[in-house]
Amino acid sequence: xxxxxxxxxxxxxxxxxxxxxxxxxxxxxxxxxxxxxxxxxxxxxxxxxxxxxxxxxxxxxxxxxxxxxxxxxxxxxxxxxxxxxxxxxxxxxxxxxxxxxxxxxxxxxxxxxxxxxxxxxxxxxxxxxxxxxxxxxxxxxxxxxxxxxxxxxxxx
Length: 156
Known about the structure:
Layout: H1 4-24, H2 33-52, H3 56-81, H4 92-119, H5 121-155
């Protein structure tokens, strides 16, 4: 017969596993997703040279198209896979990898800004596309899955 403490421990571990489930068992990221996000970030940045050179209709059109496509993608993914879990209650492994994502996003901005300053808008936009593609791909296919696996091992 299990003691009361063993029962409580088992219940707490089951509760931890249930709370972590949205972070550990999620949909497989579609292969096209990193490309879509890289195109989105590049399109947003691409509006600035258009607006700065007086091509307001083209710049605003690109901005509206990019934001609209992003919102449509978000709605499709949320409808298909449900709501995304919040980072507020995320396990430490997931919060840590999200922090890494934020640092990598900052690196994208810094590298792209330097390249933009050295080569102009075309080089800067290419840098934004390539660096954001690398970051989103790394996060979705390497960093997050590894963090979720560590979390599953810890809760096993």
